[in-house]
Please model this.
Amino acid sequence: MLVAGVDDAGRGSLIGPLVIAGVMMRENDLQKLVEIGVKDSKVLSPQSRERLALEVKRVAQKYGVVKLSPREIDKVVEKGRKLHKLNRLEAQAMAKVIEMLKPDIAYVDASDVLEERFKQHILENLSFKVKIVSEHKADRKYPIVSAASIIAKVERDREIRELKKVYGDFGCGYPTDKKTIEFLRQCLEKFGEYPDFVRKSWKPAKKAKKEKDSHQTRLV
Model:
């Protein structure tokens, strides 16, 4: 039986893509993931993730990656309820990854608060029959999902490194990072608008823009 795991990286970030990755292996080979030290990507150092990503690709039958750009995310989120729309978009992206892999069963880390609803959103976008196991914290429970989370995180980290080479250090890209928020303000000061790699629909980005516009209005 062919077993796949699917997970994301960068869902809550203000900067860069949301990356969805999937890894597929034969059921009999799943133990290899434990043997090489696969764990949830969040508990691994960047160096460990890079090393394990290579190992996962070596032992996997197949892997696939889909990247959702800030523009794609903004386009969907601006249309309606943010979380609901983002969940649907992510389910569609996970379905694309599953289509690439064509497993018999796929374990996915559910982004929706309702695991079953997230599963149904994925199934709606599939052209073939596959069993979907949709659970919260699947990246901690199933090594095959942990493997996918490692691939997703490494792919996203590479994109962020490339952006920093051009635009300088903007921190981790998440709203909790003061350096990231300061970078947003600096972008608005220099250009009056955000570059394409910023998620303009995210609340902190909107807030910084509103403050900038309000300040300009007062000056006028």
